[in-house]
Amino acid sequence: MLAFLSKRMALLAFTMLVVSALVFAAFEFTPGQVARKVLGPFATQDQVDRLTEELGLNRPVVVRYGEWLGNTLTGDLGYSTLYKTDVNKIIGDRLQNTLLLAGIAFAIIVPLSIILGISAGMKEGSFLDRSISVASIVTTSVPEFASGVFLASIFVIWLGWLPGTSPLDTGTGWSIWQQLVLPVCVMVLYDLGYVVRMVRASMVEVMTRPYIRTAILKGLNFRAVILKHALRNAMIAPFTVILLQLNYLVTGVVVVEAVFAYPGFGRMLLEAALAQDVAVVEAGALFAVLISVFTQIAGDLGYMMLNPRIRFS
Amino acid sequence: MSSATAATMDRPQAEGAKRPILELRNVSISYFVRAGELKVVPNISLTLYEGEALGLVGESGCGKSTVAFAIMKYLGGAGRVTGGEILFEGRDMTKMSEAELRGIRGGRMAMVYQDPMSSLNPVITIGKQLMEVPLIHSNVNEAESYKRAVQMLKEVNLPDPEHIMTRYPHQLSGGQQQRVVIAMALMAEPSLLVMDEPTTGLDVTVEAAVLDLVAQLRKRHNSAIVFISHNLGTVVRICDRIGVMYAGELVEEGPIGEVFRDPRHPYTRGLLNCIPTLNADKRTRPLSAIPGQVPPILDRPKGCIFAPRCPAAVPERCSVAPIPTETYGSSGQHRVKCVRMEELPKHERPGTSAAPANANAAQRHDAVLTLDGLKKTYHQAIGMFGGAGYDVHAVDGIDVAAERAETLAIVGESGCGKSTLAKVLTGIELASSGKVTLAGKDIGNTAVENRDGDTKRAIQMVFQNPESTLNPSHTIGYVMERAISKLKRIGGKAARAQVDDLLRTVNLPLEFANRKSRQLSGGQKQRVAIARALAGEPELILADEPVSALDVSVQAAIINLLVDIQKKRGSTLLFISHDLSVVRYLADHVAVMYLGKVMEYGSVADIFAPPYHPYTEALMSAVPIADPDVKQRRIILEGNVPSPQNRPKGCPFATRCPRKVGSICDDTQPPEQVSESGHRIACHIPMTELASVTQVVF
């Protein structure tokens, strides 16, 4: 166990190093000057040169990377040229906002997809199965911006029950919770169908296994067969997929955040990338790696818990 | 009806008078598929009395498992009992509600399945799975059901039951798993036990131990048993009565002794004639296969369903009207579905009386294949970098030779190294040390991709499963033509002419060249596989369990074909098998392997008569023989084959050997004793002492 964790941690550190170097290199080869972006099109070349010098951007890339790496290791993530403040100050807020959104969505997606997937898969071809399967395909195939606009036109424009934007600012007259409803709904709708189909496929497979027959011919009732014998086996295959959704929810929600003007992590990354704000993008990339590695570790551990064949080998 | 049922239930059991546990009255079972209704079992009737064991035998697709699951009233989505009554303890199962069925299943009536590994839930401990049964059926608390589960595990002879309770299925061996499944079935003291091929897939010594256990438990628990098997030998060991099924019909049924001594249905006779037994070989009698195939379900012949394949059929009597089932003989228990049952001559069981001929002591030929101290060691890595770890000696120093135009059989249980040996011979794996000489050339260290064309031609394989060997998108003709052009460098017309030759050699019609493999039956596919192997006129044909996936009648035909080809072409055959009866029939020389070592090697006559190596002796005593009159000494092997990590330092068989001499067996590698005839036995017991035992089968 200890060996497993230390191996994973070493891998994590290595991945972060490689990713940060790649991001740095990518920015180096992107056309356009950072100082020009900061100062705007009407600044003189002299002003641009001065800012470039001030930010130390005229030094070789290796030196700048080394400096950034050193600072990062001491906990200083650098200065954002876009937001004109320390990265440490903004990234925490943004990450928190996104984790709130992702957390709520995840907390809804997981139990709901398990319940729907299991109910669909326990009797393949039944009416319930077909209804759930069709519904999942439909919701998954509608892109987030479309369902976002669709839901907004119903609940915001027509019914007026919810706010159209979610800046997480109570000054608009809507509570934080009301502002969260639509973004969460869009994410759940988009992601749920996919996970449901994974769970369903696994459940259908499990229901054809001989040990299910054994359980039935033991005299167990259908409920006990499903809950005691099928459920855990059916969760083994989709478990890692479910945890991977956390990655998507944290880093892949740019569209949802853009549609609802949500001050989240994904939008921050997008804006920073457009402004060539390397410090913010680096910090964002590191957190993304961190999150994905941790969900993977959690996935592996959970997989071992569910599947004794892995645990003891 | 219901009052009659109540009466049978309430009536105190009369002394001696047995009450029927299970009655099938004109039961018909169908599967409903897209093509329509498949009447898999048109009409079956049978009665099973308290404590009685009935064996249902027949080839695959004859409906025995369908009957078994119909008894449990579990036929899946597509299957349905379309007529008749299934009376269990007097009550009709077909009319019961799901709740009533639940009360019976696992309680009054329990099942033991084929393939115990997949029948046990992989994520639940053995203990929990066992405890479920009393919790559902006996209305007891956790503590009591735990006690009963441990008690039951003790009864099925599992060592350290408390420990087993905490284990998961994959942590047990196949034999242990099947014991657990049997324990689970017996937990609620059922009055009926349905066993569906319970020993198929187990090694022969494990099979013997499981069968002994079933026989023992039967006496103790007085459960009636329906025992489904394709192996007539296992039925003889367990059952009082036997029912022979063919194409969904029960064609003959009666007490074991009566049916085996005087089979009245030609299909029963056909089955008995095509099973190789431990006391006959190709020199004393040929196997006779049943010609033709089981008719398709949608196109049943009128009258007797076996008539198209029956050697005794008289069309004007057999193929006109449905054949009634009538009793035969004086016992009143022997029932036969054949119009000619009274007039058929007495059935001679071929070969049982003939003494094993010692024909092959005659001349020695030159060796085509020689293995000299062949070893194959795998390194099993532990941890991240694999520095630590241990070696697995899959093949540990083998010296054998296959002579021209003869069959060398390699026999042993799973894990003995026979498949690794095949891999080294074919060049899929390289030998770790030692020599493999094929036709004068050392090939042990040449991987198959580095072998020259001639070496590849010289050694060809026939595999166990013909289904997966042939490419489904190619025609049979193309498959064979390609083999000819690749191996013999001939193309065009000449190659096509040879395809015809090969098809004739394996007794297939020439038009099969245009067919694809899915249009062929299993036996036909195996013929094609053999023809393909013959294409390059190889020095050596390596046949890895070529008949073990086939039904007995098809198996007999393929074995005959191999014998025939060998006679005509002088081919050399290396025959890898776990089936001693087939080996006995087919082989000229035999090597018995255990944990990567050859324990005994010699001519087939030497191997199957004393002196025996204790392992060979145990193997022979474990083989179920389909003849209630053949006597067999029983030697029970305890324990499992040791894992490769902690293999014994001395004799590999020491941990299980019933004739172990003492600590010398554990510590010192046994010497190889050689007799004048070239019979080699690796054992510490002197040859003379090993020779002083009686025949295992007599």
Short description:
With 313 residues, chain A is mostly helical. Chain A has 14 helices and two strands; from the N terminus they run H-H-H-H-E-E-H-H-H-H-H-H-H-H-H-H.
What would your notes on this structure say?
- The complex is a heterodimer of chains A (313) and B (698).
- Chain A has 313 residues and is mostly helical.
- Chain A is 77% helix and 1% strand.
- Chain A has helices spanning 2-28, 34-39, 45-54, 61-73, 87-121, 127-141, 144-158, 176-207, 210-217, 222-251, 254-259, 265-274, 278-306, 308-311, and strands at residues 79-80, 85-86.
- In chain A, a hairpin with a 4-residue loop joins β1 and β2.
- The longest helix of chain A is centred in the first third of the chain and has 35 residues, at 87-121.
- The model of chain A has no long low-confidence stretch (mean pLDDT 86).
- By secondary structure, chain B is α/β, with parallel strands linked by helices.
- Helix content of chain B is 32%, strand content 22%.
- Chain B is built from 25 helices and 24 strands.
- Chain B has an eight-stranded mixed sheet with strand order 6-7-8-3-9-10-12-11, with helices on both faces. An eight-stranded mixed sheet of chain B has the order 18-19-20-15-21-22-24-23, sandwiched between helices. In chain B, strands 2-1-4-5 form a four-stranded antiparallel sheet, covered by helices on one side.
- In chain B, a hairpin with a 2-residue loop joins β4 and β5.
- In chain B, α5 (126-137) crosses α6 (142-155), α8 (174-186) runs parallel beside α9 (204-221) and α19 (522-534) runs parallel beside α20 (552-569).
- Chain B starts with a helix and ends in an 8-residue tail after the last helix.
